[in-house]
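Standup, Tuesday
Yesterday: got the pipeline producing structure tokens again.
Today: sanity-check two examples.
Blockers: none.

Example 1:
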Amino acid sequence: MWVLAGIVVIAGGFLLRFNPLLVIIVSAFVTGFAAGLDPVRIVATFGHAFNETRYVTAIYMVLPVIGLLERRGLQARARALVAGLRGATAGRLLTGYLLFRQVTAALGLTSVAGPAQTVRPLVAPMAEAAAERQGGAADDAERVKAMAAATDTVGLFFGEDIFLAVGSILLMKGVLEGYGILLEPFQLSIWAIPTAIAAFVIHGTRLWWLDRRLSRGGAR
């Protein structure tokens, strides 16, 4: 149980508002010492983990590109594009994005979109432009932004479970095996399809209600 001391260090460090990076490093060393590892082994484990997950640093290349595009008017272009489309509404646009997010997540392409890559620079401004065309009230802008972020989350969360190799499927398989229930990942992913369909219908209904609200000029 001493290896759990690292959790106490993290909780205490964040509570006292110490530097997060320093807290995590100290927590890792406390956990390593509690597990009987020497300092060299702990540092080696750090290096191995970084080497195995070095792809995460790709975000440092993506974010500057998105920033430059926004500075050059990416959001304005996106709003102008929606403004020129007949029949485009915030609900319909977000429903299409929900379908896109679920399908791509089901294929394992979880990083093809996201809050930083697509929602903030593209999806949210386009939904806002559509809401303005529908005559939405001024206080509906934040609601539309929140719904755009929620759409991305719902699409990813309920779509990725259909993919065989996603961590949640493997976690469920391991937990069920612990209780003597033997299932293949394919069986779990198949049963995730009805849940994904239900999530699409439920959130799609919420988006339909959003359209109705915006069409009434924000009237409740």
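Example 2:
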Amino acid sequence: MLPDIEPVSRESTAAVIARQLRDAIMTGALPPGTQLGETDLASRFQVSRGPLREAMQHLVSEGLLRSERHRGLFVIDLEPDDVFDIYLARSAVERAALLCALRGDRERIAVTLEQSVAAMAIAANDDDPTALSTADLAFHEALIDASGSKRLVRMARTLLIETRMCLTLLQSTYQGVEDRVDEHTRIIDALRTGDADAALRLLDAHMDDAIGRLVPGTSLTEGEAPAPA
């Protein structure tokens, strides 16, 4: 048997640092390609290099930082094939989540998702791209949470951080945000009525539209991946 284990009352220093670095990468405060200097970061966090290195290794294992021999650690760059792969994986996870949601309390889930869409509309009216991306991501996070699957939620965690990096690029591809809001609303409507075929078709189209904007000439539904570099 395990010995008596005391409950952990607070996050470790490394976990706090990892969370803050993760948030900075997600929001673009640490843009793709940024080199992370240990001396500077240790000074800013006011910690020793031990917990800082532990935190950064967590992000390496999550795929958010890459290590270059004799150079150090860098925020990942999202190449076209990376973006395609992110949306390919997201599509699989969110399709499974949507099927679970369709078997659950559809009205309750629809109301929750509508809160994110309302926040998107407000952010659009306020011309606040950061808030718009946050609300957009919240919609998809809420959909995955609604699945009730701990494993889908765990699988989606890093995908959604990488998605937030993509959303910054996606902003400039829309003439207006009405279409973006409408795409999410139609998914909710299909979910509310229990129309699984329509809901899945709309989710597929939503993902395919995004990947087509981010990596022109590619398609998830038609199997058109980026050409090899």
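Quick observation on example 2: Residues 115 and 139 are 8 Å apart (CA to CA). The chain has a mean pLDDT of 87.
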